[in-house]
Design goal:
There is one protein chain. The protein has 185 residues and is an alpha+beta fold.
């Protein structure tokens, strides 16, 4: 585990194999950690701080805010009502024991050799120790670069199946959400 400077997003295109993924998160104490993906799934993401902040501004088309999470006993952020709705569902799920907004950065290099990153909307820790990674974006509003980021996140979750923590990934997509779930194998 290595501590790094300020985490930042980078742009890009098509995804390379899972071996090239790196993972970064911010601990509850504010320490920024960057590590190999195979080490990432044991990270206490549900207690960490968001890796990026979202700030409301005049004239924006979505409504950001904070949801008081009964699961966590603290405020958890959302950037849109769609995210809020997913957050509410996670909060009311009795199998969920912790929720984090903007839980980590996933870094990779595209097939074109460009650096790219993505911060999913949520991470939820389940009572059995498994985790759920959620990206909220209506299908009709997904830009090609979003589709690439969601695919990279799906591949990363599946790649974690080979990690010592023995997590496996699966994906479920609807008109309202790209949802990536990670469960013990």
């Amino acid at each position: 585990m290595i501590s790094v400077g300020p985490l930042r997003a980078v742009q890009g295109g098509v995804v390379r194999p899972v071996d090239d993924f790196e993972f970064a998160y911010v601990t509850a104490d504010g320490v920024e950690v960057r590590q190999e993906l195979t080490e990432a799934w044991a990270a206490p993401l549900e207690t960490g701080r968001p890796v990026r902040r979202f700030r409301p501004y005049k004239g924006q088309k979505h409504l950001p805010g904070d949801w008081w999470s009964a699961t966590d006993g603290r405020l958890v952020g959302f950037e849109s009502w769609l995210e809020r709705d997913h957050l509410m569902l996670l909060d009311f799920d009795s199998a969920v024991v912790g929720i984090a907004s903007q839980p980590f950065w996933l870094f990779w290099v595209t097939a074109e050799g460009k650096a790219r990153s993505h911060a999913p909307d949520y991470f939820a820790r389940r009572r059995d120790g498994s985790g759920v990674v959620v990206d909220c974006r209506p299908v009709g509003l997904r830009k090609p670069r979003d589709v690439v980021a969601f695919e990279a996140t799906r591949l990363a979750c599946e790649g974690a199946a080979d990690a010592p923590s023995r997590f496996a990934g699966r994906v479920s997509t609807s008109a309202a959400v790209a949802r990536l779930a990670v469960s013990p194998s």
